[in-house]
Amino acid sequence: MNLRRWLTPGIGIKRWLLVIFAGLLLLALGVAHVIRQVTRDLQPGGPAQVLVDVVTLQFLPYPLRGLVVGMLGVTLAIVGAVRIIRVLMDPFRPTDGDQPLVEVIYQKRFLARGPRVVAIGGGTGLSTLLRGLKEVTSNLTAVVTVADDGGSSGVLRSELGIPPVGDIRNCIAALADAEPLMSELLQYRFPDPDGEPIATAELDADHGVRPEKGGLTGHAVGNLIIAALTAIEDGDFEEGVRQMNRVLAVRGRVLPVSPTPLTLHAHLQDGSEVVGQSVIARAEGIERIWISPGDVVASEDALAAIANAELIVLGPGSLYTSLLPSLLVPEVREAVVTSPAVRIFVCNVATQPGETQGYDLAAHIDALVAHTQPGIVDAVLANNDFDARVPAAWRAEAVRLRWPPSTTEVPRLILDELVDPENAHHHDPARLAASLLRLLDGERTRRRAGVARTA
User: Fold this and answer.
1) With helix as H, strand as E and coil as C, how does 148-202 read?
2) What is the domain class of 109-454 according to CATH?
3) What is the mean pLDDT of each run of 10 residues along the chain (455 residues)?
4) Domain residue ranges of the chain, discontinuous segments joined by +
5) pTM
6) Which stretches of 200-344 are DSSP H helices?
């Protein structure tokens, strides 16, 4: 199995094996020529001639001599090459030793030629997407919202003045090569010293911190590391996140949408206004949201990644509290709208109690366009598999496929089986990544066909 992997197209081994073989062949021809010249004047039947006859296998039939020598030469060449590679590459072998070295090289070489993908959003949905995409490309950038104000992120934001780090931590954990071990480390929360349990729901939502307890109670290790790196970099949050990416050697990059903390505001259908991501996530009847400060500056790295992308993925994730806050940053929205990349909105597989309760597919698109502008995406990708297992005590419901939306420019709709068969609340990472790549290839073909017709 390992030998076949070494010879896989694209890994860059076969061409150099051929060069080595050609060199050894020329060397053998040179040695044979020297031996021929030296032995021409040997006394027939003498000791030297007998020794030469034995070494050159003269006692075997002529065709068999070349076969035996050739097989021996190939065997020695392969053994030698493998041993040399092993000696040279052992210092770079993964420390856990579980993954063969050839798999590591294959991943690095193969994934480096994957499409340039930018994923915009936050929360659990974006982390799920990244876990699938990191298996097909390392040219991956996650642009993450910085509007969270609850839990560990909220406490660090209040005490240290840094943007919220919870969604950034989740995405870095998803892209780490050592996942799930690294994920377990970054997601570990310090327990309550009084022994009071922190509910699983609180952990999932990053709302497990209890400020009244003080100390480290409920703080995630990953949040504290990012905060520490920011302090080491003299308060430069973007540089702190860059260093976090480097320290963990993630596949791709995780970037904050802005170095400035955002505050999320919402106007509800009953006429009231609420402030804060953690409050808005539980609100019903959201009519409109906006962010402050209104003149927030986008991350330069994020804008550069969007401009260089081949595929831009919006979502999945909480519509009002994870995805839209990033698109409400004017520079980011303009960069997405003007990008020549294929732009795809991935709709959630399920509604969220409060925030998108009762929303169908068309309602998601209407809300997206109302807060951005028509034509922001080329296509919409939605799930059409409704046979997944529904978790117990699940208050949400599957997103119904009502179509088209009321927007003036209706994007193309692509339906596929995207849901995790064991959890109707979540996307399946592998299914989602595969579907996005098929959609990207199809859109490229459509565009090439359009250019050909125009020409």
Assistant:
1) CCCHHHHHHHHHHCCCCCHHHHHHHHHHCCCCCHHHHHHHCECCCCCCCCCCHHH
2) alpha beta
3) 60 73 82 74 70 73 77 80 71 57 68 93 92 93 92 84 90 80 82 58 46 68 92 93 88 93 95 93 93 93 96 95 95 96 96 92 96 95 93 84 92 95 93 96 86 71
4) 2-91, 109-454
5) 0.78
6) 200-204, 221-232, 237-248, 277-280, 300-307, 324-327, 330-338
